[in-house]
Structure formats: structure tokens, C-alpha cells
Known about the structure:
Helix content: 25-40%
Amino acid sequence: MTLGDDNIASVLPPDVVAIVQKLDIFIVESEKSARHFLSTIKTLKPVRELTLSLLNEHTDDKDVSALLKPLLAGQDVGLMSDAGCPGIADPGAKLVALAHQKNIKVIPFVGPSSILLSLMASGLNGQQFAFLGYLPVDKQARNVKLKEIEKRSLTHKETQIFIETPYRNQHMLEAILSTCHPNTKLCIACDISLSTEMIATKTIAVWKQSPLPELHKRPTVFLLLA
């Protein structure tokens, strides 16, 4: 999640790519993104001959178990997120949980996570941190939540990490700057792994005095430390 889609293949270890190239069955968050990625890594079979099943935020819980059928039949299946790591801020976690219940072996592959990459580059507390996913869309509820997580960060010295739908990034940045304390640190990690990558950590006070980055429709991770 929030990694540049066109660059994912280049940041995966070669041994992982080699394994994925051999798979015939995939459970994917987006068929279009999956086909693009699989075409990029040049799977052994033509992409049109691969089996792709959808698992996304619209998938009903009762339909998730059906996705286990190939695994229960002894076949290897790849779980693919749109970008980043499957199961991390990703609906694939539901399938993995069911796989454990059925004693199906789950093998995580080494790969990039925008959440961890942004934390690594932020200079904020990496000993204690929390990933919160998406904050409320409603303006008032979002501001209340920002105050809440800022207080938690101050109390526990814990880095708070969250994301937003790319077309609402600028609204999120404005909300953070208008709501949080001047001494709170904010890291903006944008376009991770792309040539346009921008990662910067400043206090709220300094951000307010600086030219703000244009985040509209750019994959971004926000990190706060009070």
C-alpha cells in the first residue's frame, strides 16, 4: 500500500520474483494492478492463462472461505496486495487467518512496506509506534481523532502512523496543521520508491512556515510524534 505501482517489481528480492513467476493462482486486491505487475515480472505462463480471484474491501466475509479451495486441494496460491505488503492494512489478512484455522502453511515473502519504510526514514520513535490505517472522513471526527492520537503519542512517546485516500491527502495535511500542537513532529512520506519520493520531518510550527508539498493523488504516509 502506498508504494509506487510501477516500481514494485524492482524493489522485490530476485528470489521472491522467481517464486511468484512460477505460480498459476493468485488472490488479488485489484485484477488490473495484478495483471500489470505479473506482466512486468514475466510469469512463466502468459498472464491471460493465470487464475486471479478478487479479495478486496467489498468482498463479503462469507465469500472469503471459498478462496481457500485451491489451497485445500494442495495447490500453491499467491496473495497479492495492490502495492506494499499483503495483510498489512490489507483485506488479505482475513484469508490468512482462515488459512491458519485450516492448518494451511503461510509463507511471508520479503518485500517493501511503505509503513516501515516511512518510519525508517522519519527519525521518529521506532521503538514504540502504532499504525492506525485511515482516520475518519468527517472533518469534526477527524479533528477529534487527531487530538486523541496526539495525546496518546505524548503520553506513551509513541509514533502514530496513518494514511489517507490520495485525493484527500491535502485536506488531511491541512487538518493536521490546524489541529496539532506546534511542537508536535510531523513526517510526510510521499511517493516512496518513486523518482518523485519526498520524505521530510518537521515540527508543526516549522511546517506552517514552509512551502507545503502538493500531495493530491500522491501515495502518502503521515507520521506524528508529540
